[in-house]
Records
---
Amino acid sequence: MSERRRQRVAVVGGGVIGMSTAWRLASEGHPVTMIDPEPASGASRVAGGMLAPVAEAWPGEESLLELGAVSLGRWPEFAARLSRESGRSSGLNREGTLVVGVDSADRAELDNLAEYLASRGRSVSRHSGRSLRRAEPSLGPAVRAGLEVPEDLSVDNRVTLEALRAAAVAAGVEFVDARARAVGPGRVELDESTVRCEFVVIAAGSHAGELHSGLRETIRPVKGEILRLRARGTALPPPRRTIRGPVHGRQVYLVPRENGLVVGATQYEVGFDTEVTVGGVRTLLADAERFVPGIAEYALTESSAGLRPSTEDNLPLIGWVEPGVLVAAGHHRNGFLLAPITAETVVGLVHGSAVADEAKAADPARLGEQQ
Ligand code: GLY
């Protein structure tokens, strides 16, 4: 093994990005220390787990669409390796996604999305409400039209996180349950000690900006409330595919789980607040019921809120902050989707090898250029 591959790396932040990166680096032979007071407890635990670059595409975010599509293409191999190295399920669900709408304004929005995707060389098939209900019998009569996006997948985020932790442990990652206060070249300052290393990867989500002056005010928290539902004995089974779309202009998604659904998500900018509001739960349930009326018979097992780490242009920051210090944060709505390409890019940067062209759009150097 080359000297470079034995260099010690400290990863700050144990969400899906930090855990994926730590695992991949350790698998490549690096001694890796993961620093997090409570790994897998933040936004990654709350997440819906959609891998949906196409269904969530937005005009003006072409680089994000391309980056997401590349990472989605990496997911089957990433999941197979994760299962192999963890001895667990990766949580990957290969059923696709339906984007549906209930009124004429929603239909116009679906038409706009289909046209935009066609302009980017991605065609989606359009369906009537009746044909959608043949594919997913739990869809209600209010659903009038939709698009089928078979390539957009999902994961059970908590199953994936458990597999990532097991794979990281198996690859030799050392876990330090402590809060990092600051990061510099070759060191991570904890409350009462310092972790020394050759490289640091800042993967601390919404808190990344607190750790290094070069990241100050680059990432802001965007709150998302989300619900978990379980199908009870007599209720109609949940859809197999992810269902998402506008309900009277608001976006809602229903992501399948073993015998249940995750319903999300609200989107507000209210600092680091993670309390769930009555209004948030009411809106999510009402909107989800328009798509799948049978959820009225389901048990509401959890309501929670997470903080999406968001940047100005909704692209993540993946690259050098200064020599010896990398950032892998700011993944906004796309942490699980972008985990494979993020881990691959960080490994490439540490090794000094080429990174995918699409990942260059995430280089934090762009922040200086935008000012
Ligand atoms: N990925 C979906 C969300 O952020 O709500």
---
Amino acid sequence: MILTGDQEFYKGIGAIPFEGKESDNPFAFKYYNPEQVVMGKPMRDHFKFAIAYWHSFCGQGGDPFGPGTQQFPWNQSNDPMQRARDKADAAFELITKLGFDYFCFHDVDLVDEADSLAETEKRLHQIADYISQKKKASGVKVLWGTANCFSNPVFMNGAATNPDFNVVARAGAQIKMALDLTLSLGGENYVFWGGREGYMSLLNTDMGRELDHMAQLLSMARDYARGQGFTGTFFIEPKPMEPMKHQYDFDAATAIGFLKTYGLEKDFKLNIEVNHATLAQHSFEHELAVAAHAGMLGSIDANRGDNQNGWDTDQFPVNLYEVTEAMLVFLQAGGLQGGGINFDAKIRRNSTDLEDVFHAHIGGADTFARALLTAEKILTHSSFSALRKERYASFDTGSGAAFEKGTLSLEALAEIAFNGNPPKRISGKQERFENIINQFI
Ligand code: XLS
Ligand code: NI
Ligand code: NI
């Protein structure tokens, strides 16, 4: 069901149907068929596609060289509350026309911050009431909420890791409000992206103390939210740099180590972002595999980077080969724990028609859907799984199995090498694996 406000913003565009790959209707899905069952689950439930409030309705395309280029019709009123309601109308119109079930937000995406915390909190309550009604009317849900503790200049030295306790308190207040907001909107998860939790220079930074502080605030946030009845999952979103030179949640492995060091691993999982993975010199599928191995593959932010540029360009996914490799990890891990696929992506600065955001999301959803279908076929109709299993067959029986079980001593292990024949040369067969992906795309 399409939900518009008093005015329709995306005029001339209706509900986006699934029409299949033969369709040349630019306003139709070619591969994303929400009800189609893939490995026992409808695509809709595999993905839980979510729209990022900040990119689609707030960001106007400003960059370091010039101001925004978008002229959003929901951004016209002089009254911040009216602007916020218009923005919510646009958001629910886009989400329901795309037929998605979820959105994600930062506190300050929903309504502009006021001069005082008290006034901001009042505004947040008001807009939450308005959005709650729209949620009820449409069935749209919140995948996750978060606090923007990085844009306001007060956070220039960090939020939870700020060397000034007063700023840490300010961050705590904002996180408390964002948790309240997420709870009141029935949010299924809550995200911490450590935007300025890191350093610009180690010379002026006590890293150990800052890490302790970050863990302290995360623990307090967890305890508060659990006390308020929040049963969802907390996610850490790793990113190696930008805006800081170095960010503490550098990559999946670093974040997992941090969570385990501070005893947070039961309540927290990871939100893996494609572009953050590549910024850390990893592939998307690497980060997914690391998270999955730790039982912490929680959610995905589906924005790719640019192969020639080194920053977080937040582009919509289009790379089938890359996403297919990711979907192989995804399916083998049994999907996401609590989260979904959030399009943390923005249209380019010179994409200035209101309809462009439809093309972007249609393309992104189709890329994931086509990759999921390809990965399903690879797992069920190719030699992929058998070939992988075969590589490790020497651990399935005899001494190999004893090694895995931990019943072999180092002396016994050495004896096997001394008494046996030298190891054979066994090909890794990478090219054959690579060809399987191409064959099934
Ligand atoms: C920035 C992050 C951010 C988080 C939410 O690079 O991706 O958008 O997802 O704060
Ligand atoms: Ni993100
Ligand atoms: Ni990002």
